[in-house]
Amino acid sequence: MLNIQYSMLGLGLISLLTISCGKKTSNEAAATDSTVVESSIANLTPQQIKSIGIETAPIEQKSFSTILKVSGRVDVPPQNLVSVSVPMGGYLKSSHLIPGMFVRKGESIAIIEDQQYIQLQQDYLTTQSKISFLENEYQRQRELNQSKASSDKVFQQAEMELKTQRILVKSLAEKLKLAGINPEKLTENTISKSINILSPINGYVSKVNVNIGKYISPTEVMFELVNTSDIHLALKVFEKDLDKLNIGQKVTAYTNTYPNKKYPCEIILIGKNLNEERNTDIHCHFETYDKALIPGTYMNAEIAINNAKANVLPEDALVRFEGKQYVFIKKSDSQYEMVEVQAGNTEKGYTEIINAEKLNNQNFVVKGAYSLLMSLKNKAEE
């Protein structure tokens, strides 16, 4: 019985110690957290301020060369992107095109076969052969009509038949041209069941949508060709940044795949219409074209904006801690608060402060900021 009482007493003491230790640990954690929170504020004596040599000043506005970062895609004007089809349809007999291949204007890029081409050429030559007979008949009836040897009706019929055949020959000739056949060179010895599809531009093959033996309907696109002579970069720019841009302004572009490979560009057109997201396209011309830049390629770009007004602080006002940038704001004659900022470009000893709107009417430590950071770190370690 006595042993049981001692055992229960021991358990009680252990439980009490455990609770006591738990409370102590919780308080220590709270104290540590409090220290971390308070470590963003440095309290100094007048002697310390003098020893460190702290100087404060408000944020300044200076003409600053800033970099506007935007993104967009490689694009071409509509007239430089050509879809190739067959106006009259037919079976694809042969083609050597593969995506990425360069073709020249007038070069044969495909051969199409179909019976309708034979019939079209036959109709044209047959109709054309009737023209000379009808012209002679028209002249004969005209002379007879003038001498009243034939009636006006017979003469008018001959005239109408000649005009009808001339119209038919003209329409058939245009159909031949549409199919890629030159009617002026067509004879009974040159009738062919196939036609050549010629490249309408100098450019690169971007798409091949057909295969040998397939029937190509008139509405089907066989190939897409891109003329890269006027390829450009279309970038999205928000409304608030449009007033900073001008025609002729320099742009540096790069891809995500090769960010170190830079492409110099120049702004050639600034859009005038804003979309629902309050941005518009600006178009830039590549100074040197790289054939690896095909339409649709995603690119990042940096635009140098000269003489733009920016909120700046001296470089010494900023300190880096745990990968972030901070400044010290004067709260009173002896108190300074460390505040995180977003730093922009640095030029001539000054650094741009991006989120300066939140820090208006404040005085910043411009000398001695690093010493304040060290004092806070030492305080936190204590």
Give the helix/strand layout:
Blueprint: H1 2-38, E1 41-43, H2 46-52, E2 55-58, E3 60-75, E4 81-84, E5 90-94, E6 102-103, E7 108-113, H3 115-146, H4 152-179, E8 194-198, E9 203-208, E10 215-216, E11 223-226, E12 232-238, E13 250-254, E14 263-270, E15 279-286, E16 298-314, E17 319-321, E18 324-330, E19 335-341, E20 343-347, E21 350-353, E22 363-367, H5 369-381
Antiparallel strand pairs: 1-19, 2-22, 3-12, 3-16, 4-11, 5-7, 5-10, 6-9, 7-8, 9-11, 12-15, 13-14, 13-16, 14-15, 16-21, 17-18, 18-19, 20-21
Helix pairs in contact: 3-4
Protein name: Efflux transporter, RND family, MFP subunit
Organism: Emticicia oligotrophica (strain DSM 17448 / CIP 109782 / MTCC 6937 / GPTSA100-15)
Keywords: Transport
Concise structural overview:
By secondary structure, this protein is α+β, with helices and mostly antiparallel strands. The protein is 31% helix and 35% strand.
Overview of this structure, please?
Belongs to the membrane fusion protein (MFP) (TC 8.A.1) family. Keywords: Transport. By secondary structure, the chain is an alpha+beta fold. Helix content is about 30%, strand content about 35%. The chain has five helices and 22 strands. It has helices at about 1-40, 45-50, 115-145, 150-180, 370-380; strands spanning about 40-45, 55-60, 60-75, 80-85, 90-95, 100-105, 110-115, 195-200, 205-210, 215, 225, 230-240, 250-255, 265-270, 280-285, 300-315, 320, 325-330, 335-340, 345, 350-355, 365. The strands form five sheets. The chain has a six-stranded antiparallel barrel.
